[in-house]
């Protein structure tokens, strides 16, 4: 299962769903979680599961993680939603399925400002405190070195592609 948290996570999951070349990834189940109902509505289609977060996890069905062997969580760190919900979601997934959990997350570009970077650092420490998840961090700033032409418009699309590449190249179902 690919579980997206927050605005960036949902955009990344969408890119994975659209562009994945590995069959296991194309066939994976997708869950989109966000506090932003308008953004979330963009991903609502028959084959997806999307859930609006409203302060607690009561809206997540108990059986959601049943029989999920491998859970990949995608998110952009640096925002409020992901920081607020990620540990609770991981605990929920752990209790329900004991599944193998991997987080693939990006850290912000410097152009987003120090506050975002600091928030991302804090979220990483929250995740690390849980201890039982693997975390693959992709530093968005690396894209600046890789793509000298990167700009405000294409930056997040390049990041989405890099996340997909990381999952296909390093994670085996
Ligand atoms: N790859 C990718 N990263 C993004 C995108 N949009 C934002 N980001 C990155 O993700 C970080 C977190 O942003 P969001 O996902 O919007 O934050 P959130 O978890 O929804 O939290 P709030 O919106 O603050 O409630 C940002 O600081 C950016 O670095 C995107 O479309 N794709
Ligand atoms: Mg958001």
Distance between the termini: 10 Å
Rg result: 15 Å
CATH topology grouping: Rossmann fold
| CATH homology-level superfamily | Tubulin/FtsZ, GTPase domain
Q: Give the domain tally.
A: 1
Put simply, the count of helices is: 7
Task: Give short descriptive properties of this protein.
binds guanosine-5'-triphosphate, Rossmann fold, alpha/beta, about 170 residues, binds magnesium ion, about 45% helix, single chain, 7 helices
SSE layout:
Elements: E1 2-5, H1 6-19, H2 23-26, E2 30-34, H3 37-41, E3 49-52, E4 70-76, H4 80-97, E5 100-107, H5 114-130, E6 134-139, H6 141-146, H7 155-170
Parallel strand pairs: 1-2, 1-4, 2-3, 4-5, 5-6
Helix pairs in contact: 1-7, 4-5
The structure holds guanosine-5'-triphosphate (GTP) and magnesium ion (MG).
The site of magnesium ion (MG) has 5 residues, from helix 1.
Structure report:
It is globular and about 45 Å long. The longest helix has 18 residues, at 80-97. Helix content is 46%, strand content 20%. The chain is built from seven helices and six strands. It has a single domain, classed as Rossmann fold (3-Layer(aba) Sandwich), CATH 3.40.50. Strands 3-2-1-4-5-6 form a six-stranded parallel β-sheet, sandwiched between helices. With 173 residues, the chain is of the alpha/beta class. α1 (6-19) crosses α7 and α4 runs parallel beside α5. The protein has helices at residues 6-19, 23-26, 37-41, 80-97, 114-130, 141-146, 155-170; strands at 2-5, 30-34, 49-52, 70-76, 100-107, 134-139. The N and C termini lie close together (10 Å). Bound molecules: guanosine-5'-triphosphate and magnesium ion (MG).
């Amino acid at each position: 299962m690919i579980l997206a948290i927050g605005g960036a996570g949902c955009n990344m999951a969408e890119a994975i769903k659209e562009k994945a070349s590995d069959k296991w990834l194309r066939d994976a189940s997708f869950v989109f979680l966000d506090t932003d109902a308008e953004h979330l509505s963009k991903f609502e289609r028959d084959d997806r599961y999307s859930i609006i977060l409203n302060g607690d996890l009561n809206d997540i069905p108990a059986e959601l993680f049943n029989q999920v062997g491998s859970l990949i969580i995608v998110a952009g760190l640096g925002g409020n939603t992901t920081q607020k919900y990620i540990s609770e979601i991981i605990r929920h997934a752990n209790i329900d399925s004991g599944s193998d959990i991997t987080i693939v997350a990006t850290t912000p570009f410097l152009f987003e400002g120090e506050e975002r970077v600091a928030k991302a650092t804090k979220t990483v420490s929250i995740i690390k405190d849980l201890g039982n998840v693997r975390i693959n961090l992709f530093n968005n700033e690396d894209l600046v070195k890789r793509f000298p032409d990167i700009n405000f418009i294409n930056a997040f699309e390049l990041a989405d592609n890099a996340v997909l590449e990381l999952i296909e190249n390093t994670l085996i179902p």
